[in-house]
Amino acid sequence: MKVGIVGAGMVGSAAGFAIAMRGGAREVVFVDRNAALAQAQAEDIGHAVPFAHPVKLGAGDYEVLAGAGIVILAAGVAQKPGESRLSLLARNAEVFSEVIARVRQHAPDALLIVASNPVDIMTEVAQRASGLPPERVIGTGTLLDSARFRALLAGHLGVAAHSVHGFVLGEHGDSEVLAWSSARVGAEPLDRIALQLGVAITEEVRAKIDAGVRQAAYRIIAGKGATWYGIGAGLARLVQAIRDDQRAVMSVSIRSPEVAGIADVALSLPRVIGAAGVVSTLVPSLDDGEWAALKRSAEVLKDSTAGLW
Ligand code: ADP
């Protein structure tokens, strides 16, 4: 499969690198309004290929996207000093709509993956601008937050993160919801596994893991300015699930008709990912508090887009 990446900054290039290291595509092409950057990323990642998988790297204007099965949108628009959130959003939406029109022109059959922030809103912008069905416009959403949740819980319990199943739902942001009540280790609920392993999962532990997940991006940004490896790897994983029609269950964001009583909102739920994009959405088993938190998260997203369309 050929994968296009629009936006060859830290996130876009980390995705390209992760795809090359995993052998996730036959060809990866970069497009960026900074053409020299796109070219340089393609060349640099191309030099990793002899140590990795046979992936062909390229860069250029939007024409290079021709034949792509997936296009990742990782173009970032920085906030201007003093700019309001809604004004930034409106500007982002405008830039994104232009980018999407050009992507659609050259890669009409491509499924879109949205990585630009605020990702849930950009996913809705991309879906509206592209006119594609919602299941073909997938935002990374809480894909990375769920990975962080699993990793922190696994570390606490002393088991592999791969054996921990749990999701972060809702907005990729402050209102996101850690679905503690449906988390499993192996096939066991948390209280049972904690008992069997002799490791307590107290309120204090939960609060620490919750903060660890919720504040991860802030911590990393404080240390290195931005985050890119985690999301890059997540994007490569998502690409493989689509390319191989894996039917893998991941928490990703798509525009959804109704979530927790809130109509028409893009946010993350556990979804089955295959060649057609989101093949189905799973209804998580949550307790009352978690449903209420998910509803609040949906409301936060709805409110933040009020006046945008
Ligand atoms: P991030 O950390 O989100 O990757 P960066 O600033 O490193 O942020 O990268 C964003 C990239 O998106 C930059 O290389 C920038 O040139 C590119 N970009 C921004 N706007 C557009 C656009 N309209 N079309 C194509 N690329 C864009």
How is this structure best described in words?
By secondary structure, the chain is of the alpha/beta class. The chain has helices spanning 10-22, 35-46, 85-106, 119-130, 143-157, 190-197, 203-214, 216-224, 229-243, 288-305, and strands at residues 2-6, 27-31, 56-59, 70-73, 111-114, 137-139, 164-165, 168-169, 177-178, 184-185, 188-189, 248-259, 262-274, 277-281. The chain has a 6-stranded parallel beta sheet with strand order 3-2-1-4-5-6, with helices on both faces. It has a 3-stranded antiparallel beta sheet with strand order 7-10-11. Helix 1 runs parallel beside helix 2 (35-46). The longest helix is centred in the first third of the chain and has 22 residues, at 85-106. The protein binds adenosine-5'-diphosphate. Residues 6-12, 32-34, 37, 74-77, 95, 99, 226, 228 line the site of adenosine-5'-diphosphate (ADP). Its EC number is 1.1.1.27. Beta-D-fructose 1,6-bisphosphate binds at residues 150, 165.
Topology:
Elements: E1 2-6, H1 10-22, E2 27-31, H2 35-46, E3 56-59, E4 70-73, H3 85-106, E5 111-114, H4 119-130, E6 137-139, H5 143-157, E7 164-165, E8 168-169, E9 177-178, E10 184-185, E11 188-189, H6 190-197, H7 203-214, H8 216-224, H9 229-243, E12 248-259, E13 262-274, E14 277-281, H10 288-305
Parallel strand pairs: 1-2, 1-4, 2-3, 4-5, 5-6
Antiparallel strand pairs: 7-10, 8-9, 10-11, 12-13, 13-14
Bound molecules: adenosine-5'-diphosphate (ADP).
Adenosine-5'-diphosphate binds next to helix 1 and helix 3.
